[in-house]
């Protein structure tokens, strides 16, 4: 707009020079020449400014287009269905991980000939999953039968969904297949899934019925550990050499991180816990009370001084001890604090001190004396 005004002034001044003769021609020409120079300089600046603004607008538009593309891509990726993580157990990323799909294989060693020399051992196993300390189980699968093998290697890959937030236990129940009579039970073993993941890629599970038989559970992408078969011993640190089966179990009990039932408003209270021990035969058998501790006052970490002596019968396989912890209350019914189901054979096979998670919350520790 300014340049148009200057051009108009230049034209008017030129017209005045032509109309009034030559007396002002020299001064006016010089003035008009100066005005024309300024107008050209101003037009150059305006042109450069317009070019700069256009380039800036183009850059802003390009940036906006790039951001729009990134946003659209992120929306597309977020809308895709996710698949669960699949980790072989050889991957160290599983240590401490919240969950994933485990792929594993199973082998057996030192299985006894249950046919007394008149037949062969044809083993297979059933796999069960428990998330409540063994109170209930869900059958996951039945393996193939390996013919005439006392040291079987089952080739099938087992997939298990691992969830650290659940108290997951696997129970392997091994049988000797017999076509002429009922299948013979070789033995069973419990494996804590989180403990198995955290402590390495191989677990050795001592079978409860025979003195030297054990299972090897390992990652499906790893070879079977080349370990010599030594009668009467279980390899690896997780399981010590098989001890003679005791006539009885003597132990003390303690617990930690028990829930509280005597809270007053927002003020947490303490419980007065005691434990009752029951014996349970099989999953469907009833519970028989066999021992009861004294009460420890006002604590979430009781250490009971009682020494419990539990007879171990010869046919104790599939017999469990049920530990039920209560909060003693003189004014109302005693509250339940926790429960654990542990097989007698598993207690006998463990070391001097071992811990077992209580259902929902807390840890029960058994110390042999």
Question: Could you explain the architecture of this structure?
Answer:
- The chain is an alpha+beta fold and 369 residues long.
- Helices cover 23% and strands 35% of the residues.
- The protein has helices spanning 2-19, 25-79, 193-198, 344-349, and strands at residues 86-88, 99-109, 123-130, 138-142, 153-163, 169-176, 184-192, 202-206, 214-219, 248-256, 273-281, 287-292, 303-311, 319-327, 335-343, 353-357, 363-368.
- The strands form 4 sheets. Strands 1, 2, 5, 8 and 9 form a 5-stranded mixed beta sheet that branches. A 4-stranded antiparallel beta sheet has the order 4-3-6-7.
- Mean pLDDT is 75; it is low at 17-21, 74-93 and 234-244.
- One of its GO terms (molecular function) is calcium ion binding.
- Keywords: Calcium, Metal-binding, Signal.
- This is Copine-5.
- Residues 1-21 form the signal peptide.
What structural category do the secondary elements indicate?
Answer: alpha+beta
Radius of gyration: 42 Å
Amount of helix = 10-25%
Strand content: 25-35%
Terminal CA distance reads 105 Å
Low-confidence stretches: 17-21, 74-93, 234-244
H/E element sequence: HHEEEEEEEHEEEEEEEEHEE
Principal-axis shape equals: elongated
CATH topology of the domain at 99-219: Immunoglobulin-like
CATH C-level of the domain at 99-219: Mainly Beta
Write out the CATH superfamily name of the domain at 99-219.
Answer: C2 domain
Largest sheet: 5 strands, mixed
In round numbers, the mean pLDDT is 75
CATH architecture of the domain at 99-219: Sandwich
| Strands, total number | 17
Signal peptide: 1-21
Protein name: Copine-5
Keywords: Calcium, Metal-binding, Signal
Organism: Folsomia candida (Springtail)
């Amino acid at each position: 707009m300014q340049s148009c005004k200057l051009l108009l002034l230049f034209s008017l001044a030129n017209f005045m020079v032509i109309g009034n003769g030559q007396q002002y021609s020299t001064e006016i020409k010089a003035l008009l020449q100066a005005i024309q120079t300024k107008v050209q300089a101003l037009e150059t600046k305006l042109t450069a400014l317009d070019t700069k603004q256009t380039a800036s607008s183009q850059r802003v538009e390009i940036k906006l287009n790039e951001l729009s593309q990134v946003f659209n891509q992120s929306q597309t990726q977020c809308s895709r269905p996710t698949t669960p993580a699949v980790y072989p157990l050889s991957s160290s990323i599983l240590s401490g991980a919240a969950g994933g799909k485990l792929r594993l294989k199973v082998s057996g060693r030192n299985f006894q000939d249950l046919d007394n020399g008149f037949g062969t051992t044809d083993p297979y196993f059933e796999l069960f999953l428990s998330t409540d300390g063994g109170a209930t189980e869900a059958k996951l699968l039945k393996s193939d039968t390996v013919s005439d093998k006392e040291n079987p290697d089952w080739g099938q890959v087992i997939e298990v969904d691992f969830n650290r937030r659940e108290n997951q236990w696997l129970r392997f129940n091994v049988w000797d297949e017999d076509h002429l009579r009922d299948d013979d039970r070789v033995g069973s073993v419990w494996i804590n899934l989180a403990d198995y993941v955290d402590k390495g890629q191989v677990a050795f599970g001592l079978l409860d019925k025979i003195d030297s038989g054990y299972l090897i559970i390992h990652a499906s992408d790893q070879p079977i550990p080349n370990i010599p078969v030594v009668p009467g011993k279980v390899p690896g640190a997780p399981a010590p050499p098989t001890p003679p089966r005791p006539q009885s179990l003597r132990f003390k009990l303690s617990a930690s991180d028990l829930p509280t039932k005597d809270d007053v408003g927002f003020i947490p209270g303490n419980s007065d816990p005691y434990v009752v021990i029951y014996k349970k035969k099989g999953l469907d058998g009833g519970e028989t009370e066999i021992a009861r501790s004294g009460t420890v006052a006002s604590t979430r970490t009781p250490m009971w001084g009682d020494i419990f002596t539990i007879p171990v019968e010869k046919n104790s396989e599939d017999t469990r001890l049920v530990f039920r912890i209560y909060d003693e209350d003189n004014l109302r019914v005693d509250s339940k604090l926790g429960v654990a189901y542990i097989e007698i054979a598993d207690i006998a096979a463990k070391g001097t001190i071992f811990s077992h998670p209580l259902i929902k919350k807390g840890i029960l520790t058994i110390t042999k004396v």
